[in-house]
Amino acid sequence: MRFDEAYSGNVFIGSHPNYEESRVVLYGMPMDWTVSYRPGSRFGPSRIREVSIGLEEYSPYLDIEMEELKYFDAGDIPLPFGNAQKSLDLIEDYIDGLLADSKFPLGMGGEHLVSWPVMKAVAKKYPDLAIIHMDAHTDLRTEYEGEPLSHSTPIRKVADLIGPSNVYSFGIRSGMKEEFQWAKENGMHISKFEVLEPLKEILPTLAGRPVYVTIDIDVLDPAHAPGTGTVDCGGITSKELLASIHAIARSEVNVVGGDLVEVAPIYDSSEQTANTASKLIREMMLGWAVENKK
C-alpha cells in the first residue's frame, strides 16, 4: 500500500504535498458496513475535506497557523464495500505503515468500528497506551444481534486488548445496563453526560503516557451535530468539545494519534455537522501534533 500518494483528489485545507516531509498524516476510513441505525458515515471524510475550504488556517484558540504544521492528507483508504473484516485488516495494515514511518495518524470516519484496528495498531507500538474516548454511547457490547463486528463494539475490543483500567470514556449517555455494570466491575472509567470537567481531573493522572483519542461526533447534542447516524439528545456543546480538545493539548499527556468518526452528511442539509467536524480536525492537528506549542 502506498503512503506517499493521496488516494483522492480533495484535500483538507493546508495539506503539505510531500508525505516524507510531513509529521502528520490525515486519512479517511469510508466505512459504514455495520451500522445499526442510519448509514451514510462513509461519506463523512470526503465532505469534511470539501467544507474545510471555509476554514481559516489560523487557530485563535492555540495561536498557531497551519503552516507551522506539516501534514499530509492521504485521502480515503480504498475499502471493499460490505466486507467489514477485510476493511479492518486494510486499516490496520495502513496504520502499521504510518507508525513504522514515525507519522502521527489522524483519522476521519466512517463508523466507529474503524477506530478499532487503528487503536490495535497503536497499542502494538505503545504498550503503555491509554485511550480517551468521547461519545454518546458506551460502545462496550461484545456483539450486536449476534455480530461481533459492529460499531457498538470498538471500545470493548480495545478494553479487552489493553485492559479496562486504561480506557477513559466521557460524555456517555446511552448504553445497555450490562455495559455500565461491566465497566464498573472491571475498573474502566466512565463519565456520564459531561466531558470537560471530568477530563480535566483525569488528564494529570495520564501525564507522560501515550494516549490515543477517539471522538464520536455524536458526543455533541443533535442541536450542534444533527448529521450523524445515531443521534442522542442531551449531549455537550461544540464549545465544550473544542475546550476538551484544547485541554488535552495543554496537558502533559503524549498524544500519539486520534480520530473523529460518525459524521454522516446526508442527515444535515445545513452542513453544520461537517463544518463543525472540519474545525475540530484543525484543532486536533494543531493542538496535538505541533511540536513546541506556544
From TrEMBL:
UniProt cross-references to Gene3D superfamilies, sorted A to Z: Ureohydrolase domain (3.40.800.10)
Enzyme class: hydrolase
Keyword annotations: Hydrolase, Metal-binding
Assigned EC number: 3.5.3.11
Any GO MF annotation of the entry: agmatinase activity
PROSITE patterns: ARGINASE_1, ARGINASE_2
Record-linked InterPro entries: Agmatinase-rel, Ureohydrolase, Ureohydrolase_dom_sf, Ureohydrolase_Mn_BS
PANTHER family per record: ARGINASE/AGMATINASE (PTHR11358), GUANIDINO ACID HYDROLASE, MITOCHONDRIAL (PTHR11358:SF26)
Annotated family: Belongs to the arginase family. Agmatinase subfamily.
NCBIfam families per UniProt: agmatinase (TIGR01230)
Name of the protein this chain belongs to: Agmatinase
Species the sequence originates in: Bacillus kandeliae
